[in-house]
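The passage that follows is intended for readers who have already worked through the single-chain material. We present the inputs for a multi-component assembly, then the predicted structure in tokenized form, and finally a short commentary. You are encouraged to pause after the input and sketch how you expect the pieces to fit together before reading on.
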Amino acid sequence: MNQLTDFSSRDDLDHALANTVSNLLAEAIKQKGKASIAVSGGSTPKGLFSLLSKSDIDWSKVTITLADERWVALDSQDSNTRLVHENLLQNNAAVAKFFHLKQGEKLCTDTLADLNLAAKNSLLPLDVLILGMGEDGHTASLFPCSEQITQGLDETNTNALLSVEPKTAPHQRISFSFASLITSENVFLHLCGENKQTVLNKALNGDDKFEMPIRAFLQHPSLNTQIYWAP
Ligand code: 6PG
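Having made your guess, compare it with the prediction:
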């Protein structure tokens, strides 16, 4: 299931999404005393991060993480962690906790096991998940071209995180699995540009999730993925 909202500009979209997400986080804090959110990297969310960082909620009770991370140095231009630190963990949101996916030099079995345990114990299920989508229909680092896609999309997978080696994109990745991401209370797909609209239409008009992993979210019977699109 999914619901599409079109905006006339990226700025309108960013304001609306920042507002909705802030309200959801504030509500979770009111109900449980804490809130969690996973955001995506890439070029789309910068403006959203900046607005969100200024929202007036109790960020000290919020844990922020990434839906996926590239296994690169934290000071690399390609680091999603760096993007979040420079754009979201600022202003009011500077006091939020950050759940680091990139730990150490190598993504080894022990690191994955530790992260899986920590994610299950302290982070999941997420209150808010904001996904992006690549032009090949990948989301998080669930890449159609990767050997790990079967495991990544397996709804019975009990591992929250997996290592992914995409064949058509740079860097080894760590990604939350589909099984763990669909436990999120609120799922958003943030898309900008005509190309993404074309890819979205293709995703909505077919059903092979291994060809376009985003379909697993858009067409899941009990998940309501809220799509926010602007030109
Ligand atoms: C990543 C992602 C990825 C991203 C899409 C869209 O680290 O690459 O989290 O899933 O959201 O590829 O990227 P753009 O916003 O750059 O188009």
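Commentary: The mean pLDDT is 97. The chain is about 35% helix and 20% strand. How closely did your sketch match?
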